[in-house]
């Protein structure tokens, strides 16, 4: 039901026919402008003093398109299906000194424009600089591209491809700080192609134009799979051998030497009366597990929609729409999981626990959004959400998320059973022996997060290049394989470190297991600093705020999701090993 609702919402947001007859006006919308090196810093198209078509018509956009920063307006160019256009004047505009300075600034920052022709993206530079090798900036020459030529390919009654070219030789020199008159022109040429409509977006994929990169990525994925299998196989053989010896030793002691056991004996078996002692801050732990379960469910649904082809590249904003709707519709999962586990831990304030669950992820995300939206408003960027969109998201949260969270919480509270502990817990807690420094929480978290991060490092670069760059990510199957590898490695590493912690007779494993699993999120955030300074061209306060702000929210989500995976794996493991021995 969740998938069908999300799919229907995405389908309703796409109202394009894509079928034309000769002479039909093909929709062309101008979207935004911004620095080429900083693709997330965008402004409305008419932020620069281009020619406007008179009454500027704003296209009605879906929720996801607005969240994506799209602000489509009518473009001044008129293109009819299969009708060539010789050089045609759009307008003759007299640039003021202020408008000329604005164009020169945009050219100096390598501004590009973005348009959509029949939902196909068009990019191009605003102008160019000559003399960049010179040391004196006053010797630079600024040229504005005032002519745009459209090369359009069609197949039968559909548009297949569009390219926009500029005539750099006829560019207008706007170096002088003075008023000047500029004539903006355009032309168009239609040609037939054998490429079918279902393959028209291949040129926008990184791997479509660079097939050797696809081979490299598959090789990297196979390498990650091999490393993950070798790692899990190696640790499994060691862990199973050690556990088998432990079972034999403890069973032998139980049968023959129970009355002569020395209190100085050590091992995980001798903390059986404390290992299931409920942790501190159990309401927070239950809320974290509930939120992590919801985010894990969200990821699974997103991958299902992606694998069946819902998120095709030119379906703008579909991913954001799906994220909003599926997160709202799966809030019952968080409420049920959190309330059920909290009641198993004999918690009494289940309403307070539900409120904590509802705000554990959405609360920090809302605070970060308020800050970043304020920054976007100050910079007059298209990343700033309109008031109507903010109210729509609030209504979804108030009318869908909260009620489903409450229903899930009530169901979880009423259906919860007693906590399944194979050993009884003593009244007095056992003293924990002194541990070496490498057995502390931080060194163990560093080890737990490093191995899963290594498994996803290669694909993480492509994801960052897509989210924060100009690339279009289309190979969801590779990303899904990486996600499975991440889950498996996270679970196994957490189980291994939990075992070593119990061997050291440290029975405070509940929160440790969650932190072990979630520590990969911290590694991803550390990688953000490397990517920002070494692999990206982003700069400035706005770019830094958006990059580190939204990545902190994403990494926090990964912390909750992978923490839940690690805790669940550790809980199953601890129950299994203590169920296999005799406990007094």
From TrEMBL:
Instruction: Give the transmembrane ranges.
Output: 218-240, 284-312, 318-342, 354-379, 385-407, 435-458, 478-502, 514-532, 544-574
Species of the source = Genlisea aurea
How the protein sits in the membrane?
Multi-pass membrane protein
Keywords from the UniProt entry:
Endosome, Golgi apparatus, Membrane, Signal, Transmembrane, Transmembrane helix
A biological-process GO annotation: protein localization to membrane
InterPro entries for this protein:
EMP70
Q: Report the superkingdom from the record.
A: Eukaryota
Q: What is its main location?
A: membrane
PANTHER family registered for this protein in UniProt: TRANSMEMBRANE 9 SUPERFAMILY MEMBER 2, TRANSMEMBRANE 9 SUPERFAMILY PROTEIN
Q: Would you tell me the Gene Ontology cellular component terms?
A: endosome membrane; Golgi membrane
Family, similarity comment: Belongs to the nonaspanin (TM9SF) (TC 9.A.2) family.
* Pfam families (UniProt xref): EMP70
Q: Where in the cell is it found?
A: Endosome membrane; Golgi apparatus membrane
Q: What is this protein called?
A: Transmembrane 9 superfamily member
